[in-house]
Each structure stands twice: as structure tokens, then as C-alpha cells.
């Protein structure tokens, strides 16, 4: 009997140890993922790189941007795997980086991640100050996209036209101008605690750019559409960007004018479930909801629409409006699906915190969605991205044991300048694009477009819809990872 009890004890200990090992293996290192998600932005930098640059296979690029138009437009970010600076999605990425810090930055205090995140925001806002430096002019794009997309070359080698495209009083672009205003206003809140002079500069410029966007209304589709389309056409109109910018300006200033602007115009927006670089509708409602809940104001229609957003996303909701893969990844129509997973998860996580502070829940007909349920949903999406999925693949480059190796990204897929100092011209990069070899340079932290709706991922450079990373996928993920690192 003693021998059996002894053997049983060993068996129980073996099971316990095995369970602990499995749990540790299955857990996500949110801190590591956070650091890498921020590092990604250094790999997307355009312009003169600083001595502190950590992605060392990248070098200076596009050092004469804007000079042909008599303005300095050096800096900013390449949005994805190409070499064009599309200011509309760049501004949205900046706004979401700033929101990540204003909402979850406390979870990053005392770490190098916070400093690197501030640097990531400032790399963009410094550029946007340049892009809005001329009265009555807002630069919306740098780089002729058709010629750029016909070449596969490193940003350091670019020999395609670096034309700068602007919107003006006579050729307006309210959506791109208002999104830049939102980015500057949101960033001014971030820097208020770190550099008050810079914060004031950002806020002053945000106000001026908003006035320009609101006074001279029109879509940049009509002004410079032959260059911004089909890449980043505005398909939702510019009204949402105007309200989004006003909401951020109100958050930064508490000025009655901006609050009145939002409340009097919110009824012009019919959607409540869209959120991303093109459509800000759901983000407006969630952002405003915090102010409403704190101050016990009339909630119509902001809280109602924020609740509808929740009910359109949660899988158990009777009014579900999205699809899910068998492994649980949220899906919406369009390219680069992972942008929906990160952006919408960010909104639900932020809204959960606001609801919890007000001791409220969301009622989806007969289903009650508590703040903790919203948080679990967001964590599930983040965990999927980091490898908790049927193929056990991390969709963040450099994170985990298995991740994409052949991402659709010029700089990553071509030999670095350090390894191949000779110029690689437009078509000289084609063999590298067509190769089945892994990319020679790891773009650490890049999150690709993700698998298809059946949880399948081909890891093909040519399959850009699934293998291309973008700044607007990573930006909201920074906030999500910051939260879950502190609350894992």
C-alpha cells in the first residue's frame, strides 16, 4: 500500500508539473510583444534616421521629400510594405498611438517602452507639423504611388518620383486634414506631461488645421483622387473625420465649441460599427462615452451607439454583425483583416474600462455583456494574433517560435544596404520578390494582414492582402498589449 501511495503521489506531481509547463507554454508574453510592436515603427521610418535607431538594417531614405514644392517634408512613416507616405492612414495610426498612451500609458510608466512609444508618436507629429506649415495648404501624400507600386526596391534606393500632393482651399480634403488635426490634438494630450511647449504647439496647429478642414469642405477623392485612389480612397465621407477631430480637440481643450460641434452633428452619421483609417464612427462614440459617463450627461446617442457596437461584435450577441474564423478571429470585409481585430478590440477594451468605472453593463437583447466580458474578448483577439490559434502561428514577426518569414515588405525582403551597398533599381528587386526564400531582414514587431477566414496562412510575399504589415494594425495593438501586460 505504501508503495502504491508513493507511486500515486509521483503520478500526481508529474501531472501537476506537466500542467504548469503547458500553462506557461500557452501563456502570452505581452511585455515582449509590446516592446516589439513599438519597435516595428522604427522599421517604417522615412527620412534621416537618428543615432538611437534600433532597426539597424534600415538607413536614411527620402531625404529630399517636398523640396520640389519648396517645403521640407522629410520624415514620417511608410504606411506598409511600399515606399509612399500616405498621410491619411499615417495620421490615423498616430491618433491611435496617442490614444494608446493616453488610455493605457500608466501601464508603461517606468519602462523603456513608454519612451520608445513617445518617440514613435513624435516621429509622426514632427512630420505633420511640416505638412501643415503653409497657410491654406495641407500635404496629403508624398510619392507617386503607381510608379512606386510597379517597383520592388528598398526605400534607401528609391528612384521613383517623390511628388508631394496637397489639398488647398480651392481643392479641399477635409478627411485627411481633419485626421491630421485629430492626430495632433491627441498627441498634444500625450506630450502635456512630458514637453508642455511641444504639447501647446501641437494643439495650436491642430486647431488651425481643423478650422481649415471644416471651413473648406470637400473630399480629397475629388481633389487628388487619381493619386490617392485606389490605395486610400475615402469611402465613408469626411463628416466622421470632422467629428473625430472635434472630439479630440474637446478632450484636449474642454472647450464648449468642440463639444457643441460634436453633439449637434453626430446625428449626421448613420453607422456605429465601422472603425479604422477610413471610418471613425465607432471611435467617436466610445471616445465621447468616457466624458459622458464621468460627468453624467445626456448620453444620446453616444452610449446607445457604443452599446450597439459591442452587440455587433460579441459572438454570443443576437445582433452579431461580423464573422469569425473557426479559431475565433474576428473578420470583416476588405483587405488586411487584422486591422479590424486590433482596432475594434481596442474600442471594446477602452469602453469596458469606462463602463466599469460607471458600474454599467451592455444589454444585447437577452444577453448581458459585462465589462469583464469585453476585456476577455479583446484578450482573445490579442492571444490569437500572438499564436493561440489552430496553426499555432504568431502573426507578429519575431514573436514566438513560428511567425511569418516572407512578409510583403520591400525593405525586409531585399538585402540591406549594409549587406549589399550597391544600388538595386526598380526591377532589380523583382527576383527577391519572386523568391521563395525567407526575408533576409526581420521587421521585428510587424503584424501582417493575417490568415483567411478558415485560419489558413500561406506565408507568401505575393499574397499582400494577408502578408503585408501596416502601421494602422500595430498602433491600436500597442494600447492593448500595454493593458494586458499589466493585467495578465
Explain how this protein is built.
- Keywords: Carbohydrate metabolism, Cellulose degradation, Glycosidase, Hydrolase, Polysaccharide degradation, Signal.
- Its EC number is 3.2.1.4.
- InterPro entries: 6-hairpin_glycosidase_sf, 6hp_glycosidase-like_sf, Glyco_hydro_9, Glyco_hydro_9_Asp/Glu_AS, Glyco_hydro_9_His_AS.
- The protein is mainly α.
- It has a domain at 27-270 and 399-486: Glycosyltransferase.
- Helix content is 50%, strand content 5%.
- It has 18 helices and seven strands.
- It has helices at 2-26, 30-43, 87-104, 112-131, 145-149, 174-191, 196-215, 220-228, 239-253, 256-265, 281-295, 302-313, 338-358, 371-385, 410-413, 430-434, 464-467, 471-486, and strands at 85-86, 137-142, 164-168, 323-324, 330-331, 362-364, 367-369.
- The chain has a three-stranded antiparallel beta sheet with strand order 1-2-3.
- β4 and β5 (330-331) form a beta hairpin.
- α6 runs parallel beside α9 and α11 packs parallel to α13.
- The protein is globular.
- It starts with a helix and ends with a helix.
- Mean pLDDT is 93; it is low at 1-25.
Amino acid at each position: 500500500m505504501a508503495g502504491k501511495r508513493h507511486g500515486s503521489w509521483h503520478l500526481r506531481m508529474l501531472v501537476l508539473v506537466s500542467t504548469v509547463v503547458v500553462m506557461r507554454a500557452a501563456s502570452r508574453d505581452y511585455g515582449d510583444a509590446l516592446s516589439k510592436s513599438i519597435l516595428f515603427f522604427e522599421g517604417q521610418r522615412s527620412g534621416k534616421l537618428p543615432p538611437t535607431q534600433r532597426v539597424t538594417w534600415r538607413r536614411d531614405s527620402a531625404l529630399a521629400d517636398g523640396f520640389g514644392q519648396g517645403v521640407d517634408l522629410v520624415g514620417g512613416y511608410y504606411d506598409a510594405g511600399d515606399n509612399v507616405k500616405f498621410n491619411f492612414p499615417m495620421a490615423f495610426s498616430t491618433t491611435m498611438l496617442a490614444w494608446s498612451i493616453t488610455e493605457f500609458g500608466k501601464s508603461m510608466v517606468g519602462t523603456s517602452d513608454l519612451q520608445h512609444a513617445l518617440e514613435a508618436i513624435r516621429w509622426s507629429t514632427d512630420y505633420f507639423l511640416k505638412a501643415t506649415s503653409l497657410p491654406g495648404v495641407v500635404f496629403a501624400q508624398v510619392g507617386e504611388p503607381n510608379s512606386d507600386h510597379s517597383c520592388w526596391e528598398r526605400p534607401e534606393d528609391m528612384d521613383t518620383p517623390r511628388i508631394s500632393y496637397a489639398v488647398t482651399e480651392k481643392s479641399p480634403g477635409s478627411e485627411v486634414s481633419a485626421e491630421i488635426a485629430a492626430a495632433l490634438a491627441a498627441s498634444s494630450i500625450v506630450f502635456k506631461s512630458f514637453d508642455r511647449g511641444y504639447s501647446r504647439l501641437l494643439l495650436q496647429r491642430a486647431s488651425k488645421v481643423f478650422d481649415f478642414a471644416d471651413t473648406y469642405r470637400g473630399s480629397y477623392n475629388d481633389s487628388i483622387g487619381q493619386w490617392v485612389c485606389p490605395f486610400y480612397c475615402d469611402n465613408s465621407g469626411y463628416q466622421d473625420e470632422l467629428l473625430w477631430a472635434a472630439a479630440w480637440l474637446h478632450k484636449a481643450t474642454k472647450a464648449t465649441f468642440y463639444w457643441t460641434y460634436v453633439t449637434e452633428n453626430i446625428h449626421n452619421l448613420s453607422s456605429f460599427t465601422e472603425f479604422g483609417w477610413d471610418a471613425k464612427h465607432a471611435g467617436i462614440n466610445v471616445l465621447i462615452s468616457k466624458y459622458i459617463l464621468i460627468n453624467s450627461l445626456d448620453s444620446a446617442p453616444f452610449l446607445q451607439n457604443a452599446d450597439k457596437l459591442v452587440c455587433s461584435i460579441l459572438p454570443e450577441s443576437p445582433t452579431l454583425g461580423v464573422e469569425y474564423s473557426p479559431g475565433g478571429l474576428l473578420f470583416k470585409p476588405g483587405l488586411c483583416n487584422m486591422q479590424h481585430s486590433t482596432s475594434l478590440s481596442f474600442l471594446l477594451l477602452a469602453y469596458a474600462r469606462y463602463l466599469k468605472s460607471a458600474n454599467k453593463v451592455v444589454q444585447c437583447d437577452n444577453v448581458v455583456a459585462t465589462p469583464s466580458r469585453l476585456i476577455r474578448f479583446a484578450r482573445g483577439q490579442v492571444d490569437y494574433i500572438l499564436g493561440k490559434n489552430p496553426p499555432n502561428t504568431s502573426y507578429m514577426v519575431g514573436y514566438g517560435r513560428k511567425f511569418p518569414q516572407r512578409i510583403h515588405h520591400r525593405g525586409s525582403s531585399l538585402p540591406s544596404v549594409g549587406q549589399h551597398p550597391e544600388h538595386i533599381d526598380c526591377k532589380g528587386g523583382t527576383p527577391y520578390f519572386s523568391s521563395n526564400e525567407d526575408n533576409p531582414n526581420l521587421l521585428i514587431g510587424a503584424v501582417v494582414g493575417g490568415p483567411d477566414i478558415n485560419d489558413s496562412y500561406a506565408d507568401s510575399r505575393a499574397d499582400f492582402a494577408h502578408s503585408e504589415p501596416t502601421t494602422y494594425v500595430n498602433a491600436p495593438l500597442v494600447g492593448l498589449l500595454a493593458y494586458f501586460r499589466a493585467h495578465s
